Amino acid sequence: MMRKLFSIIIIGLMLMTSLVVIIPNSVKAEETLITVYVDNKRDDVWYEDPYNFNSIKSATHFANNERDKTIKVEEVYVFNGTYYESDIEILFVSYDLIGENKYNTIIDGAYGGVKDFIIDSRKSGVNISGFTIKHGKDCGVLVSASNTEISDNIFIENGKKEADYDYGAGITIGGEVQCEIHNNIIKKSTFGIKAWDGKLTIYENHLIENVYGIYFNEGVSNSLIYHNNFIDNYDPEPLKIAYRQADDRGSGNIWYLEDNDGETGEGNYWSDYEQKYPRAIKTGNIWSDPYRLLQGAGPDVFDKYPLVDAYGEFPPEKPVIEGPKRKVSPGDEITFTAVTTDLDGDNTIMEYVWNWTGGFGKDESTSGPTALHSWSEKGTFTVRVQAIDNTLRASEWSDPFSVTVDKAKSISYFIEFQKNPLFEFLFMRINSFFNLIKNLQDKLGWISPNFFY
Fold first, then answer.
1. Exposure string over 193-214, b if 16+ CB within 10 A, otherwise e
2. Which of 1, 89, 179, 376 is the one with CA 20 to 30 A from 83?
């Protein structure tokens, strides 16, 4: 009996020991979520922190390959600046790539890369937001993973020239993915958005002056596209005849958001609508005739509820100042021109606010984009401008434009000098002298006949 009891106790102790070993191995070590930071303008001390980087590519490489299982990168945060980078890849793990400000956090692929994209997102659950992305040789962002969100960015001149038509876009969707694209400005690219496959939700974007606004290949299906503004997407120069706002070769894609009654809804804004449908009637903010998209194959596709006015109320685009490229003289009256676009689509800029000291206050305002100004003293001066539209929404202030005022006389002073009576008197006397010499040449022949001709 005692032997049996002893055996039971021994077996019990063995089981308890095994449980002590098994329990710790069954509990996963808790991960610490971290943010890594990117700034290319800091001093060396800042980069001593292992989570601070001077390039986006080095930060994403760290996030992709971090082997310490006790930490996980949840966000790569990029401070304002211009980053000349390409071939930025998001692989293996999910994290967000966030810029400080879409106007001032710029990724410029002008110098190219090995793979001809700026950002390649191949992991699901990624959000890319807050950047200006420009000059990607083939595309700005290439997406090939589901649950990707691309929002609040500016895409400019991606895949504009000599692009591979497999890419050649601000945003390219390259796989059977679900992706949400919203609140972006996509300009002057071969394709604003190009998708080969996938189920997409695309809304509240501005697609401006691309060759194609949106292009769907046969693999795109059951996507929802609404509240986008398609503005002047047309054939390349010099023709500029046929609009190519959108081409849908997929199936089951819906280009409007319909109410439950099936009779009312809202679609997209098309800048060429009135040109295509001159007899259409307005009912509130909806046109009477559906807008027909370009259709490369299959049945016709329509936006059932095209918008009369551009969707949303957006401020004008950040202006760019055009002005003198050479030194000017004190007192010269200088012409400055503000170049911007009203993103509401109606091109109604009501006021241009000018600051002549490089600050952000109002020194002068004009109703048109041109202003005149002069400085009485020499020095280097900076100018800024802000655009205000008819909804009283103001753009960002422009980047500063520098003007150097020197003592050198400009041509305008010479023109004013010509108006001086003394100059006119001297000019007449010199002209009379040359006429006298020419007459002597004709009569005496002692001067080379080609000298005064």
1. bbbbbbbbebbbbbbbbbbbbb
2. 179
Q: Find how far residue 182's CA is from the centre of its chain.
A: 13
In CATH terms, the fold of domain 320-408 is Immunoglobulin-like (2.60.40)
| Predicted pLDDT of residue 310 | 87
Confidence of residue 22 (pLDDT cuts 50, 70, 90): very low
Q: Show the DSSP H helices in 45-118 as ranges.
A: 56-65
DSSP one-letter string for 237-265: TTT--SB-SEEE-SBS-B-SEE-TTSS-E
Instruction: For residues 453 and 133, give the distance between their C-alpha atoms in angstroms, rounded to a whole number.
Output: 59
Q: How confident is the model at residue 114 (pLDDT cuts 50, 70, 90)?
A: low
Examine the pLDDT at 191 and tell me if it is beyond 50.
yes
To the nearest whole number, what is the mean pLDDT of the chain? 81
Cα separation values, 262 from 224, 301, 413, Å: 16, 17, 71
The pTM (predicted TM-score) of the whole model is 0.72
- Cβ-count burial of 38 within 10 angstroms (0-12 exposed, 13-18 middle, 19+ buried)? buried
Cis peptide before 24, with omega less than 30 degrees from 0? Answer: no
Every domain of the chain and the residues it spans = 32-303, 320-408, 420-444
| H/E stretch holding 81 | strand 81-83
- In the DSSP assignment, the letter for residue 342 is -
- As a whole number of angstroms, the distance between CA 183 and CA 228 comes to 9
Chain centroid offset of residue 439 CA:
69
Side-chain-side CA neighbours of 89 within 13 Å: the count stands at: 12
Beta strands in 136-211 (DSSP E): 139-143, 148-151, 154-156, 169-173, 178-182, 185-187, 191-203, 206-208
Which pLDDT score is estimated for 137? 80
151: pLDDT strictly greater than 80: yes
What is the rounded CA–CA span in Å between residue 242 and residue 333? 43
Nearest CA to 223 among 243, 245, 193, 244? 193
Give yes or no for a contact between 139 and 170, defined as CB atoms under 8 angstroms apart.
yes
The 10s digit of each residue's pLDDT in 322-378 is 988 888 888 888 899 999 877 665 567 888 999 998 888 888 889 888 999 999 888
Cα 365 to Cα 115, 148, 320, 372, 389: the distances in Å are: 47, 43, 16, 11, 13
Which is nearest to 64 in space by CA: 52, 76, 53, 54? 76
Q: Which residues pair with 191 in a beta bridge?
A: 169, 212
Two tokens, residue 35: 């943010």
Two tokens, residue 197: 């496959």
